[in-house]
Design brief:
The protein is α/β, with parallel strands linked by helices. The protein has seven helices and 29 strands. The relative contact order is 0.12.
């Protein structure tokens, strides 16, 4: 069993955070995001993992290396230009020798991949798609199935009329198991989408195409600032339990500072007297000065938050400088090396 993680996206919805950091390795709880996907694959016994890259590929390869440190074998396939989800799978064809688990590179989940593998094998499927139920499915691909899990219809980002006609809220979770024969349905060198091209072709040809529906599992697309921030809140509140999360590292936290139990503080941080850290993630080497308040926020590494500044419901990139009495408000997203002068409001 192999795996292919589609990690070539530019992460345009997450900009400015992804200008210098490819989306697949943005920090989640101070850890490169891809490691969470690698973790659940390894837990299922899948250690042969390919990464399909395009945007800033060297940064990803330099960070993760050959994967041995993480208990897996990593190989890299770099597309010269983006060719869609199906096109990326086809581009890796020379490396695909057996059944392959495919992950979109922005999905955070605690799915038991071993169960999905068992389902795929038990059904004798050529392709299996993982589904997750959501309240508002209009931004995703909806999938309708028979009682045995066989896929009936695949509708990408349905409109209101189409939603009313469907009797499901199960969406495409961006995780697939594919037999090598699926490669034959994808033209070489063309931009091809699983959602718009490959899956409809499987249905048209009446191939063995099944859906595995998640039950009780966590699932989130972290591709927007709001969703990325919410993923951190979900970690801090204990909703995500499949990963072993290290406790806050050793940091210089003043006795008179307040750091609540839900917050996560990285190593080499300095938290000065009367500063408050509430329900937040603080990156490595961050300085939070006297009377500063960080609440419901994510602060990337090596940022300085000056005296009496407040950061609430926001994301602050690496090596930023937040001046004295600055107010960074709800929904703000600051890119790396942003500098806000004293008394600025964002």
């Amino acid at each position: 069993m192999q795996a292919l993680i589609l990690a070539g996206g530019k992460g345009t919805r997450l900009r400015p955070l992804t200008v210098y950091t490819p989306k697949p390795i943005v920090p989640v709880l101070n850890r490169p995001f891809l490691l969470y996907q690698i973790d659940i694959l390894r837990q299922a016994g899948v250690k042969d993992i390919m990464l399909s890259l395009n945007y800033q590929p060297d940064k990803i390869e330099q960070l993760l290396g050959d994967g041995k440190e993480h208990g897996v074998n990593l190989r890299y396939v770099t597309e010269p230009s983006p060719m869609g989800t199906g096109g990326a799978y086809k581009f890796a064809a020379d490396e695909i020798r057996e059944t392959t688990i495919v992950f979109n590179g922005d999905i955070l989940t605690d799915l038991d991949v071993f169960k999905v593998i068992g389902f795929h094998q038990q059904k004798g499927a050529e392709a299996t798609i993982v589904l997750s139920a959501v309240e508002n499915p209009s931004d995703y691909g909806l999938v309708e199935t028979e009682s045995d899990g066989k896929v009936l219809r695949f509708l990408e980002k349905p409109n209101a009329e189409e939603l009313a006609d469907l009797k499901t809220k199960n969406i495409n979770a961006g995780i697939y198991i594919l037999e090598p024969s699926v490669l034959d349905l994808i033209p070489k060198g063309e931009n091809t989408s699983f959602e718009y091209n490959v899956f409809p072709e499987l249905l048209k040809r009446k191939r063995e195409f099944y859906a595995f529906v998640m039950s009780g599992n966590y699932w989130r697309d972290i591709g927007t600032p709001a969703s990325y921030l919410q993923a951190h809140h979900d970690f801090l509140s204990g909703q995500i339990k499949a990963f072993k999360i290290k406790k806050s590292a050793e940091a210089d936290i003043a006795t008179a500072a307040i750091v609540d139990k839900t917050s996560f503080v990285g190593e080499d941080c300095i938290i000065k007297p009367n500063a408050k850290i509430i329900n937040s993630v603080i990156g490595t080497g961050v300085h939070v000065e006297e009377k500063a308040v960080v609440e419901n926020s994510v602060i990337w590494a090596h940022t300085r938050i000056s005296n009496a500044a407040t950061v609430q419901n926001a994301i602050v990139g690496r090596s930023c400088h937040i001046g004295r009495n600055v107010s960074v408000g709800s929904g703000a997203v600051l890119g790396d090396k942003t500098s806000l002068t004293d008394y600025t409001k964002v």
